[in-house]
Amino acid sequence: MNTNRITLVKGQVSSSPKIGGRVTINDLASHLCMSKSTVSRALNGYSDISESTRKRVERTAQKLGYRPLSHAQAIRTGRVRAIALVLQNDEPDKHNPFLQEFLAGACEAASDFGWTVTISTAKSDQDMDTVLTRLIEERKADGFILPRTKVTDPRVRLLRRLGVPYIMFGRTDHGQKKIEKDASWFDISGETAMQNAVVRLVSLGHQRIGYVGSDPEFNYSHLRREGFTQGLHATKLQPDPDLLREGARTRDEGTTETRVLLQLDQPPTAIVYATDMAALGAYKAITELGLTVGKDVSVIGYDGVPESQYVRPALTTYDVDTRMAGERLASLLVRQIRGEPADQLRELQEAQLVERDSDGPPALSSTELAEKIQKQ
Amino acid sequence: MNTNRITLVKGQVSSSPKIGGRVTINDLASHLCMSKSTVSRALNGYSDISESTRKRVERTAQKLGYRPLSHAQAIRTGRVRAIALVLQNDEPDKHNPFLQEFLAGACEAASDFGWTVTISTAKSDQDMDTVLTRLIEERKADGFILPRTKVTDPRVRLLRRLGVPYIMFGRTDHGQKKIEKDASWFDISGETAMQNAVVRLVSLGHQRIGYVGSDPEFNYSHLRREGFTQGLHATKLQPDPDLLREGARTRDEGTTETRVLLQLDQPPTAIVYATDMAALGAYKAITELGLTVGKDVSVIGYDGVPESQYVRPALTTYDVDTRMAGERLASLLVRQIRGEPADQLRELQEAQLVERDSDGPPALSSTELAEKIQKQ
DNA sequence: CCCATTGCCGAAACCGGTTTCGGAACAAAT
DNA sequence: ATTTGTTCCGAAACCGGTTTCGGCAATGGG
């Protein structure tokens, strides 16, 4: 009983003339022979401090290596100079090869502003709610980066209700700008990539092109599918509902959906995938049927996962600059917290085509392909 | 003037609007009709508060949803209840598939203690120094997790000099416990895995076993190599310096080192790799020579990267539970910061063998293998 | 019954910053 | 010479907690 309680000890001689050796604003003030309020206002650019003293304070602060403690400032200002990123961990594919680069971008951008990044993880939507609430209540961050936005995103609702700044990596509402009319976001235009993929395949001679989409829960899935159909439209190809598959979130599901497409009476000679993972899964389905990727069936992916350059044949894909995404998101979020209007903090960038060996002119027509599959 | 003088309003009872809606310790104190010092000490388990009032305070705190601001506490205690993780970003292979799980483990453990995780990245050893110094000076964290320890680690020197708590993921000094005699660490025993790999291969019938090590800058490289040679010793195989290669940090370097081994007059019929990435690189070298992985040449990796289960033949490897590593590291670090002696906060766990198809009985003897390679 | 402990709590100082308010010094206007 | 502004800075309150210190009441010992 009472084992872990703190016992008061008398005569605890503090051997600390200046524990930690930190330079505080008081040290700085007494060194300069002025009040700490003047020092504070000088460093924070108040207009009622003369230019000369401001310079003097700044030089001395520099010389003594003074750094205000953000948490000491926060107690009055309410700002901790930190942004938070909460990763959701219940996704089918937990291995995110881009995370390190994304973090590097975000941390570097934050650091440039003198801010830091706190990170947390959530196991489910509900846990996400708990985690966000806790971070907000304890004021661990002044704003949030929301990766992988969903069509209707519960995180957005929560943060919006609590009035906490956030920026989305991705759009919501299929990009219809209803919910997000006063929200900031950064995104890569997957729809443009999908459209370009179709155009590319058509110009290679393909007439029947399949599509394997991703988890419809995420907003990007819808945008990419729309991009694909716009590609069909732009190339005057007839859309065929049979050629549109959805919901391939993993490599294995990519295999499954590809099988379905290739078993059609009129199979596609080329397939566009919303994600590289699904496209990598396609290799298995294609080779299982005795077909060759890039000749019998052309494959184009999206994301630029590292493995795409190591599979044989190497995967043609649209590469996303994840590091830059992190950098832009952090930067835009900090600016938003500092007061810039959110609806002016939006950026849409393009993915970069990486031409490799998984696509090319069709070796067979769709009919011939069907026969070859049949015989197998 | 006097505009800021708030005039007292009669009906202003306890349920005041309270900008921001947060419950502060003052609210709690006035709600309980006791001083805030009593509340504070009650919540912090001081022995001079009676059990009954302590319970009462805790219940009320719970009911009102009171959460102390860690940065408000920090101003007096010097503790922000956060641990930091600084990732180094200049490594050859920037794609770390384990990062998300590692973070999940660390965040969850920290969260269980009511702590948080702040993250940052460094581009070089020098940048690492800068980043750490900044985080320390601004007291953004109370301690650090140091991933991927080097043989002599500059981070350790810095933190040791500044007296900042840290825990290493990995050991230093080849595990000789010189520098680390009063440091805490968590590690996976790669040396045991390497030793077991040799034993396994010998029992499969292999007589000449090669080894491809990793970057000697990192401590684990030495431990794993020593584990390998201990495996040779345990199986009474004669060590051959020609069969020991070092420094394969990437897939491509794995390919290169494998080529060297297979071009020997007496090539190995099995090769153990310190990392999966190098082992995956081996596939290219082996198939290029017209050989079959798992029959002509057995391959065993270490790490358990996701790709290992997708390559053909699937890679036999020692799987590391990265999520648990993050969890243990965070947990041990928090306990250390809370006062437990560092030299009692050490854990060594084992990697888990995953038997797949990249190893098996040797199809040929070393001499026969050499001839087959020659003919190619 | 008195005195010394002990248990328990409140008042106030404190942590390192920010922000408000008032006033001194000086210049310009009347 | 007085009034009116400006410019610039110091004193003090404040933020939300923690910790020190002292004191009151109850208890126990002689």
Model description:
2 copies of one chain form a homodimer. Chain A is an alpha/beta fold. Chain A has 3 domains: 21-68, 434 Repressor (Amino-terminal Domain); 82-188 and 322-349, Rossmann fold, CATH 3.40.50.2300; 190-320 and 354-375, Response regulator (Rossmann fold), CATH 3.40.50.2300. In chain A, 41% of the residues lie in helices and 14% in strands. The first copy, chain A, is built from 13 helices and 12 strands. Chain A has a 6-stranded parallel sheet, with helices on both faces. Chain A has a 6-stranded mixed sheet with strand order 7-6-8-9-10-12, with helices on both faces. Chain A is elongated. The model of chain A is unreliable at 1-19 (pLDDT under 50). Chains A and B meet through helix 4, helix 5, strand 2 and helix 6 of A and helix 4, helix 5, strand 2 and helix 6 of B. Chain B binds a DNA duplex (30 and 30 nucleotides) through residues 1-2, 4, 22, 24-26, 34-38, 40-41, 44, 46, 48-50, 53, 68-69, 71-78. Chains A, B: Residues 23-77 form the HTH lacI-type domain. Chains A, B: Keywords: DNA-binding, Transcription, Transcription regulation. Chains A, B: It holds the Pfam family Peripla_BP_3. Chains A, B: Residues 351-376 are annotated as: Disordered. Chains A, B: This is Substrate-binding domain-containing protein.
Question: What secondary-structure arrangement, pairings included, does this model have?
Answer:
The structure is a homodimer of 376-residue chains.
Chain A (H helix, E strand, L loop, with lengths): L24 H8 L3 H8 L7 H14 L5 H8 L4 E7 L10 H14 L3 E7 L2 H13 L5 E4 L7 H9 L3 E4 L14 E5 L1 H14 L5 E4 L6 H16 L9 E2 L5 H12 L7 E4 L2 H13 L9 E6 L12 E4 L2 H16 L8 E4 L2 E3 L11 H10 L1
Parallel strand pairs in A: 1-2, 1-3, 3-4, 4-5, 5-11, 6-7, 6-8, 8-9, 9-10
Antiparallel strand pairs in A: 10-12
The structure holds a DNA duplex (30 and 30 nucleotides).
